[in-house]
Design a protein that fits this description.
Elements (H helix, E strand, L loop, with lengths): L5 H10 L3 H27 L7 H13 L7 H15 L3 H13 L2 H20 L12 H75 L5 H33 L7 H14 L3 E4 L3 H6 L3 H21 L4 E8 L3 E8 L17 H12 L3 E6 L5 E8 L8
Parallel strand pairs: 1-2
Antiparallel strand pairs: 2-3, 3-5, 4-5
Length: 393
């Protein structure tokens, strides 16, 4: 059985290439083509005596600037335009025209194109334009204008294609998440309504039986009191479980809404009777994290608060987030549950949730520690280096 066609295999391999690799290849290609054309021109005119080392250096500097074409558009544009005017070598400028449409915002890209076209038209008009156009002619000026514009439009079209694909993928994810959350919400409502009704009826029947008995024995009264307590505990467990299921439903929200989702998750836990205290500036610091770190921190908070509801309902939880120039540290800790709280179902758990969080933090180059806190509570601490780029790669 044959595998996928070579074109599909090539597309997959290219899709997995890191952006830094493409930048290096662009810089290398610009330097090789620019130096090759310059050497060919010098050889053709036998003008080695003119010592064109300055032009060679300008070509190398402009090509090296392409390494920062994504992150530093303004300095790169200034360097390439200046080097082009100095060396009369236009290869780096053409490479940057494509990169401007591919990676820069629309307004910035077209501003660069206008300056680049103006420079090329002036150089062409005075007879120092690219070798493939007729110097000092209207046709030559139009040719360089169309070349820069064409490269810019080609890069813009590819950028728009990628943005459309990203939007389509996010929309498909949102629709799938909405469908899952809708079904989960329906099951939660049915689960709450049916079991809540049964527990309420059982509690009423126990109360009625206690009233109808004229002189119940101490043992009978104790049994009926136990039924009342178990009904109350079952109602509390039902409410806690409902909140946990709703927290799980919030995990599928898109990354752009994680700050709002985290606040909703905290509100859900508070509505279940667990006080959640956030350190000053917690949500402000959270918004300063890049998207990958926000997603990881959101999962840590959700899992930790879910465990609080499961094992220490009624206790007080604290959320803290500390940012430095190099890393971020998230702490979720809670005290022991109240003495009156039921301990049913509060065993040690499977640990699968925390194990998944450790794997997620390791992908960011960080760690996650979870251990009992002094005084009977529990403490979860996640730490990872900061990515100042703002988006995951």
């Amino acid at each position: 059985m044959s595998g996928p066609p070579w074109s599909e295999r090539l597309a997959r391999a290219l899709a997995g290439t890191r952006p830094e690799t493409w930048d290096r290849l662009a810089a290398l290609a610009s330097a090789c083509i620019g130096l090759g054309l310059e050497i060919a021109r010098v050889w053709e005119h036998a003008s080695w005596a003119s010592h064109p080392l300055l032009r060679y250096l300008a070509i190398l500097v402009a090509s090296a600037a392409l390494l920062r074409r994504r992150s530093r558009p303004l300095p790169v544009a200034v360097v390439v335009l200046a080097a082009t005017g100095l060396s009369m070598a236009f290869t780096p400028l053409f490479f940057l025209a494509y990169a401007a449409g591919r990676f820069w915002s629309g307004a910035r890209a077209w501003q660069f194109a206008a300056v680049a076209v103006a420079e090329l038209v002036v150089l062409t008009a005075i007879g120092s334009g690219p070798q493939f156009v007729r110097p000092g002619t209207v046709a030559g000026c139009m040719a360089v204008t169309l070349m820069v514009t064409g490269l810019l439009v080609a890069g813009t079209a590819l950028r728009q294609r990628d943005e459309d694909r990203t939007r389509a993928a996010l929309e498909a994810r949102r629709l799938a998440t909405d469908a899952v959350n809708e079904e989960r919400g329906r099951l939660v409502r049915e689960f709450h309504d049916l079991l809540g009704h049964d527990v309420a009826v059982l509690n009423v029947l126990a109360g009625s039986l206690q009233v109808t008995l004229d002189h119940p024995s101490p043992r009978t009264s104790a049994l009926l009191d136990g039924v009342h307590e178990q009904c109350a505990a079952a109602t509390e467990h039902l409410r806690s479980m409902t909140v946990r299921l709703r927290l799980r439903a919030l995990e599928g929200e898109p990354p752009q809404a994680l700050g709002e989702v985290l606040q909703r998750a905290v509100a859900q836990v508070r509505s279940a009777g667990t006080e959640v205290r956030t350190d000053p500036g917690f949500f402000t610091a959270y918004e300063r994290l890049d998207l990958a770190a926000q997603d990881a921190a959101h999962r840590v908070v959700t899992e930790a608060l879910t465990n609080v509801l499961r094992h220490a309902a009624g206790s007080e939880a604290r959320l803290g987030l500390d940012l430095t120039d190099h890393d971020w540290t998230l702490v979720v800790e809670n005290g022991p549950p109240p003495a009156t709280a039921s301990t049913a179902g509060s065993g040690g758990g499977t640990g699968l949730g925390l194990g998944g969080l450790r794997d997620r933090m390791s992908l960011l180059g960080g760690t996650l520690d979870a251990a009992p806190a002094p005084g009977g509570g529990f403490r979860v601490c996640a730490r990872a280096p900061r990515n100042h780029g703002g988006t995951p790669t």
